[in-house]
Amino acid sequence: MNHSEYELYRNIVEEASLSGAGRKLRISNAMVSKRLADLERRLGTQLILRTTHQFSLTQAGQSFYEDVKNILEAVHIAEAKISGALHIPAGRLRVSAPTSFGRLHIAPLLNGFMQAHPQIDLDFNLNDKFVDIRADGIDLAIRIAAKITPGLDHVRLGTNDRILCAAPSYIKARGEPQTITDLHHHHLLATNDQMPWRLAGPEGEVVTGGKSLISTNSSEIVRELAITGSGIALRSLWDIADELDAGQLQRILPQYEGSANVGIYAVWPHAEIIPAAVTSFAHYIQKALKPTLERLS
Predict the structure, then answer these.
(1) Could you give the CA distance from residue 171 to residue 177 in angstroms, rounded to a whole number?
(2) Which of 41, 63, 202, 277 is most buried by a 10 A CB count?
(3) Any idea where the HTH lysR-type domain is (predicted)?
(4) What is the pLDDT of residue 84?
């Protein structure tokens, strides 16, 4: 087994480009291409279909990637047992977080974490989709969800309190809704997968909503549209607390809020042995975020 060949191939697949793998491994595109060609020649099959504008795995390439990933994970665990990395935070740590929460609340913590754990090689990615942790090679992900997928371990970071809000300019132009049914006559703002809204109110859970004024996969677009007066949004307090304090947004229908069973979690694949880098990151951000999330609850 050529460990470096497998590491190169995994990076090519996970970066979805030869140039991305080259940047990450700090080798030239020409060297990446040559080593991939050597690997394909040795295996006697094409692993990747690549043109100037397209990149895709062949069936053999996908199968080989899954096997390589498992091999490298097993090698990592075996080495960690000997080197002590299972007990000492060290090595590669790949983290994924939702874009807004990651940018506003996780990114400011990274410098302190890296200073406390200089032996960790941190790879931090923002993505609003629920990544497949195992398939994408993620060591730890931040999840905002009502329940945790089976097969994942977790620590709860806090409650995701959400409220209905709009800009004063929107309320001045369109009026403030007085009942939940009034929302049907207003411009609503939501990402493509957010509707319908599940709200907790005096009468229990209410499901409401309609078509969003704009179709978008970005929660940050929804946030900016709400601030600039385009409509009514259901937003997390951790996302809009400053705008509420500054008067750029105001709460509407305060008797209603987002379903209370949605939490914020750090999750990672269940395994017999969890690397110390994973648990160290989870507990570091849990402690660091506690004052902020408790203040917003």
Answers:
(1) 9
(2) 277
(3) 1-58
(4) 57
Ranges of the chain with pLDDT below 70: 1-3, 52, 79-87
Q: Tokens at residue 195, please?
A: 């509707």
**CA nearest 62: which of 72, 49, 71, 51?**
49
What pLDDT is stored for residue 26 in this prediction?
85
Q: What is the pTM of this model?
A: 0.70
Fold classified for 1-83: Arc Repressor Mutant, subunit A (1.10.10)
**Paired residues of 188 in beta bridges:** 212, 232
Q: Report phi then psi at 50, rounded to 5.
A: -135, 135
CATH fold of 86-160+262-297: D-Maltodextrin-Binding Protein; domain 2 (3.40.190)
Unique residue bearing structure tokens 């970066």: 15
CATH number of 162-258: 3.40.190.290
Side-by-side strand order, sheet with 232-236: 188-189, 232-236, 162-166, 250-251
Beta carbons of 43 and 9 less than 8 angstroms apart: no
